[in-house]
Every structure is written in structure tokens, then in C-alpha cells.
Amino acid sequence: MIKGDTLLQKDTERLRKLSLLDKAAYRTAKTRLPYVVGSIFRDGVRRIDNFVQAHCLIVDVDHLPNFDGVVPASITADRAVALAFVSPSGQGFKVVFTLEQPCNDAKLFQAFYKSFVSQFAERTGLVSSVDLRTSDASRACFLAHDANAYFNPNAEPLVVEIMTLEEDLFSKQTLIEKKEATKTETKPIFNETAYREVLREVSPTAPTRTVKQAFVPQELLDFMPEIDVLCQKAGLEVFEKMPIQYGIKVLVKQGYRKAEVNVFFGKRGFSVVKSPKTGTDAALMDLLYGILYAHLFPAPISENVPLVSYLSAN
């Protein structure tokens, strides 16, 4: 079905184009795709209260940087991988593992899932892209067309063992969850021409709306590379520079602390404005503000010249 179903292929193509227009509409439309669940439920009702047993473990790998639309060879080379295909979003992939024996305990399954996936993520270098929220045994996995989907009917099944969750396991789990929580998707500058073309194909009769692009003065565009250098010297990581009207929103992090500051350029030149928001760190924001302000408005250097010497020289 994933490789050859023409209807699924068309639905997948439309869905990915829709994601360029409206993320909320994309999430709603995605629920119309066929899906699979790795567990069996009483009366066929997919609720954790009705859980009977799990037969598969499905890993969701998403928001991969520079993803080329093909499942990496490092994944398909794993002898335990039974199935791997590109996600509906087109920005990642799903990986399916089978279990040697059905797991009859939902909590045990969840604990094993987090333990196994944590190790899998570290082994494959996917720590920042693996989603541990899919550890719920009732989680659905939406299917998408993938002409190059990988399938191994002879994959080695996983053995679910009753284990004691040591502190180091929790620390690894927490690390991945925190990285998932702090991931920020960089928003591309809106392309109105592409928007109109996609909308015309998805819905030919729909009226198109005009979306204003943020105007960023050339002075700010020239300053953007310097922001990275200044922040790097201060031990700050710039994870996004977002165009806003006549300005740039600069977002940085240090560990798990985040901060943002807006830099504008207008008739009176540059201005730096703090942007306190829920979830940001005030001290880190002050540091970022100080770095940018000091660079744009350096304090004048006074010369230590005695007044008498100055008067006699004139």
C-alpha cells in the first residue's frame, strides 16, 4: 500500500503542499490518512484503558535537517528494522520494529520503548529528532506514500525484558525529552508566489489572500552575520533570526535557557528592544541585549588629557 497505492500517493502529495499553506489545516487533514497501531485493543476501541497487548514498536523521526526524502542507509542496515518509510510531512520517517513476544503491560511497554528508543537515537545520531511522545501504546502511526519504502520480513524481533529503570536511563530519557521540548523550527520567509501556485493546485476555486512580507532594511541584513560572531564569543547559540517589520528577532539559547531580543533600523538608526516572554530567561535576555547594544552603540573613549595642557596647546 505504501509503495503502490495511487490514491495514497495523491493524498500524500496534496497533504505536503497543504502543509506549506496552513499547519493547522495540515494537522486536521492528516487524520484522514490510513493509519496503523502496533497494539490490540478490547472491542477494537483504541484507548489505553482497552489495551490488550503490543506487537510492534514504532519510532517517529521528524524535523531532520537537510533531509533528502530518503530513509538513511544507517537505518535500513539495522537488522531489527522491519519497515521504514517517509512520514506524511516529508520531513522525517517512521521506523517499525516487531516484538518477539507480545507485551501485555502498557506501562512496561512504555518503559521499554523509552529505553530502547533512547539507545537507538544515540546509536544513529538522531537524539534531537526522535520523538519520545510516541511511547504511548495507543499512539496511531499515519501512513504515507513512499516509493522507496524499506521492508524486511525477516527482521530480528526485539525482546521486551522486565527491567529496573536505573537513574542513568532516566537521565538519557530526560535529555532527549528536553531536546525535543527546546527544538525550534526555523520559519522560512514567506514566498507569496509559491503560496499562490500551491493554493491553485490544492483548491482551484479558493480565493487567494495576500500575505505581507516583513521588510528588513539592508543595514540589518548586513548586520546579521555579525550577530552570530558576537553571540558565539559570549557562549550563546543563535538558533533563529526571524525577519520582522523593519527588524530582526534574534533568538538564542545557553543550555536550556532561552532569550530573545528585537533589533530594528529606522529613520533614527538602530534600536535594540528586549522581548520578555514566558519561557525566556531574564538574565540571558539582559546579556544578549547588552552584547548587541554595546556593539551598535559603543561608548566614546575619553582621553586622559589635563585641562591645562589642552588650554596651553590652543
Plain-language structure description:
The structure is a single chain. This protein has two domains: 6-182, no CATH class; 218-296, Bacterial toxin RNase RnlA/LsoA, N-terminal domain (TATA-Binding Protein), CATH 3.30.310.240. It is built from nine helices and eleven strands. The protein has helices at 6-21, 23-30, 73-76, 106-124, 167-182, 192-202, 218-233, 282-296, 307-313, and strands spanning 35-36, 39-41, 51-61, 83-86, 93-103, 141-142, 150-151, 237-244, 247-254, 257-266, 269-274. It has a five-stranded antiparallel beta sheet, with helices on one face. Strands 8-9-10-11 form a four-stranded antiparallel beta sheet. Strand 9 and strand 10 form a beta hairpin. Helix 1 (6-21) packs antiparallel against helix 6. The protein is elongated. Residues 164-171, 173-178 and 180-189 have low confidence and may be disordered.
